[in-house]
Specification:
single chain; 106 residues; elongated; 0% strand; 3 helices
Length: 106
């Protein structure tokens, strides 16, 4: 072996080319310190998804409530309750999104 050429112990990659010590190549890099200040959140997409979830869960809760009232099925009542919980979570998420958007100045 010549000086500077990699030996069998110097190659840390497995048969598929992955590094044995982990896949994070940037772990040795020092953080710049401004990541939280420059990080961007997709509030618009999150708002759309929460709005769709709110509408869908509320509609499903109504449908399951009607079916449960007609048939007296405990399963339908359970599904209606789950849908109401999902709708409440989506509504709370929309409130958080609106607060963060106001704080950001949008």
């Amino acid at each position: 072996m010549t000086a500077g050429s990699p030996g069998p112990d110097d190659d840390r990659r497995d048969d598929e080319g992955r590094d044995d010590e982990g896949c994070d190549d940037h772990e040795d890099r020092e953080p710049a310190g401004n990541e939280p200040l420059t990080a961007r959140s997709a509030l618009g997409l999150r708002a759309v998804l929460s709005g769709v979830a709110l509408v869908a869960a509320a509609a499903a809760a109504i449908v399951f409530g009607i079916v449960a009232n007609r048939d007296g099925s405990g399963t339908a009542w359970g599904a209606a309750v789950v849908c109401v919980i999902v709708a409440a979570i989506a509504a709370a998420d929309l409130a958080v999104i609106a607060r963060r958007a106001r704080a950001r100045g949008r």
